Amino acid sequence: MGSIAEPLHVDPFAEQNREEDAGAVFVLESKGTWWHAGFHLTTAIVGPTILTLPYAFRGLGWGLGFLCLTTMGLVTFYSYYLMSKVLDHCEKAGRRHIRFRELAADVLGSGWMFYFVIVIQAAINTGVGIGAILLGGECLQIMYSDLFPNGSLKLYEFIAMVTAVMIILSQLPTFHSLRHINLVSLFLSLGYTFLVVGACIHAGTSKHPPPRDYSLETSESARVFSAFTSISIIAAIFGNGILPEIQATLAPPATGKMVKGLLMCYAVIFVTFYSASVAGYWAFGNKSSSNILKSLMPDEGPSLAPTWVLGLAVIFVLLQLLAIGLVYSQVAYEIMEKKSADVNQGLFSKRNLIPRIILRTLYMIFCGFMAAMLPFFGDINGVVGAIGFIPLDFILPMLLYNMTYKPPRSSLMYWINISIIIVFTGAGIMGAFSSIRKLILDAYKFKLFSSDVVD
Questions:
Q1: What per-residue string of b and e applies to 307-328 under the rule 16 or more CB within 10 Å gives b?
Q2: What are phi and psi of 39, to 5 degrees?
Q3: Coil/strand/helix, residue 250
Q4: Is the dihedral of CA 88, 115, 352, 243 positive or negative?
Q5: Tens digits of per-residue pLDDT, 273-330?
Q6: Cα–Cα dist 318/132, whole Å
Q7: Cis upstream peptide for 253 (omega within 30°)
Q8: The dihedral formed by the CA atoms of 106, 112, 118 and 124, expressed in degrees to the nearest 10
Q9: pLDDT digits (tens, 9 = 90+) for 424-438
Q10: What is the crossing angle of helices 34-45 and 179-204, to 10°?
């Protein structure tokens, strides 16, 4: 009996069907190299959410914070590696999958899995799109408030400005066409991380450093809830949920290329995640804001670092948010264009161009409207991590690998995969409960179309 599973049924997503699939031919065209995949992965994972890591450490403390950060990093790298191996195996068997939902449905042999994945992916991708526009608007508001302290513009007006820019950028037709933008995004993430780390060191070593207290909450139940909320936040920060779509952009054969892209991505993760966590939590302790830039620019009193440093960091964050919004919109675009575009017409033909402009514009307007209406979206980060990223990035890849390669039940790999599934299923349930609890506790702060983002 071989160690590789044989296909259980005829693949409904066979390569010959791709020729009539406009979402595959247009949006997910396969022309990229491994370093292009590395750029896409880095943009999908290493974003301004890393500035939330000191806040996540608030609920964990130094020891548990480092343990969770390292564990999440190792597990997600392992998880993405296994998923890439499953995709490579399917490609060698003549069944190249370019969508997460198709891979899950094919390997697990269940039609409902197709819809489960597409619903979770849609929630994640739309959520990230809304969050990117909201945070982009907040960045503009920060710069405006610094230049015009008594200015009359509201947060929703800045959100509208970011939405207008996103509508223009959304017309880039393919995922592959984002490769140069995502290279710039990689350097932007390094740039604002180093600026923020330097600002935190400056604040912590100044003559009047902020008071630092690293103690956890006094109530044991509150400590437990805070810890699971922090775990969900870290899971969301490491998650991407679109690895098969990123691997789809690689020119065939894709075998082995994704691992190189992952190594590039995780080199950037190591530098940025640890430095931001250590510097931010060291400087502000359990007073760390959900965005460490807010701690460096308190509402009362002067900034705790040079204005030009913080201003440049905010600009870098704003620019990268545009790239992140574009990357996570690709799944929505390929779903729309699979139905709306005609693969027999040219990519820029009137038949395909007009529907693309209309549908992508409407999608961005929807994301912008939700960002303006719900400016407490940061509080939903933990919920998204628990019910979105944990199933797609910590559970399904292990299941897909065990179903495809069928490692012996006596093998170490089999039990490592099963253990990860069990542990992160429990963490996801507790994280969802803790995050929803925090949403309820913060509900009194929520106000539709508010000009302040709830911390």
A1: eebbbebbbbbbbbbbbbbbbb
A2: -65, -45
A3: strand
A4: negative
A5: 999 999 999 999 988 888 888 889 887 778 889 989 999 999 999 999 999 999 999 9
A6: 9
A7: yes
A8: -120
A9: 888 778 777 777 777
A10: 40
